[in-house]
Amino acid sequence: MSDNTLLIVLVAILGGALRVSTPFMFVALGECLTEKSGRVNLGLEGTLVLGAMSAYATSYHTGSPWLGVFAAGVAGAALGAMHGAICRLPKVNDIAVGIAMMLFGTGLAFFFGKAYVQPTAPRLDSIPLGGWSDSPQLAQALQINPLIIVGLVVAFLMWWSFANTRWGLILRMSGDSAPSALAMGVSVDLVRFLATTAGGFLAGVGGAFLSLYYPGSWTQGLSSGQGLMAVALVIFARWNPLRCVAAAFLFGAAGAIGPALQSVGITQGYYFFNAAPYILTLFIMIASAGSKHAARDVPGELSITK
Description:
This protein is mainly α. It is 73% helix and 1% strand. The chain has one domain: ABC transporter involved in vitamin B12 uptake, BtuC, CATH 1.10.3470. A two-stranded antiparallel ribbon has the order 1-2. The relative contact order is 0.21. The mean pLDDT is 86.
């Protein structure tokens, strides 16, 4: 492989990482917020798909992709609120509820989304950050969507809030020790309900990116398991929002390897490289299972720790 070909591949991976990582980022931040409160939501795959369908349908009917983004967040918040309300009932397992909500959200999106497979909806615009470069490949790679910037801002605010605000303290206390939170007069159920709802909103926005920017259409196979992979990403990031962003870029880069190699004519092993994100997920789960750091940072009230 020549130096020029290698540069093209690296630039393509960079551009792919910026695009592919955004849904991972929003879903991971939503799950991080939910798990910090002491609840696991495995239903975010369904939230992602329903958010994508809602965003596309709203953009198609209103002509505004940003209204579509908001509608995706509202749809995600509705699923999150439903998950939170059910989990407040006695003797209900949040993991089982999450799986049921994943199927419910996906089925709902497929049922109502049949009418939007063919129509074309207005898409989100890009921000060109590579105008300074003479390389068309680099200029193309640095065309980013505003949702990436929104995700970075949300991640920083979450990280800061967890450590420096009363709200962050209440959230972490509810996730680490429910009896301590109750002793302080905190309604643990309410905190977890609100965290699950807000986490669903973020995951829904991640779905809007899929249908309104990249790949930029509504199909039933749009998600490809990204919502479930984001749960592994949160464990890998050790429930830190900033690490979630870094891990999302890592997953995005892994997902961009196959298309990047194909862009320079390397097709051998194409399907193997396309499976890189799933292989990475498997390795992350294996590594996290025996990680002392993950065991130290995991919220004590999570179902996976009991």
